[in-house]
Write a structure and sequence with these properties.
Blueprint: H1 11-26, H2 30-45, H3 48-52, E1 55-57, H4 69-77, E2 81-86, E3 95-99, E4 105-107, E5 113-115
Parallel strand pairs: 1-2
Antiparallel strand pairs: 2-3, 4-5
Amino acid sequence: MPPDRFIATDTLDKNHLRQALISLRQGIALDVRSRWDQAIANQLNALPILHLASVIGVYWPIRNEPDLRALYTAWAANGKQLALPVVIDKNMPLKFFAWTPGDDLLKDAMGVWIPGGTLT
């Protein structure tokens, strides 16, 4: 079965796909992106499993990724513990560290915002 045009088959394909998707996101009008972000947040907030969860892994949006930070604030206000991913080493899985909206953040070596103090 030939690979779908959206399925990366090797590193070169993954990098090409990543850049193509970043370019597409950058071309979306801000008001459209905001509506889509809200629609995504509404869908996530409707998932029963997230109402049952005590800890939810989240991400800090970069390069025009969906911005769900308002949802994170609502989850935290409702008692959910949030956790942001941190790259410890490029050859290791991500680690998640506790984070609450308003906590200090710092940029890692790739320029991604992570919970303050996680790399010390």
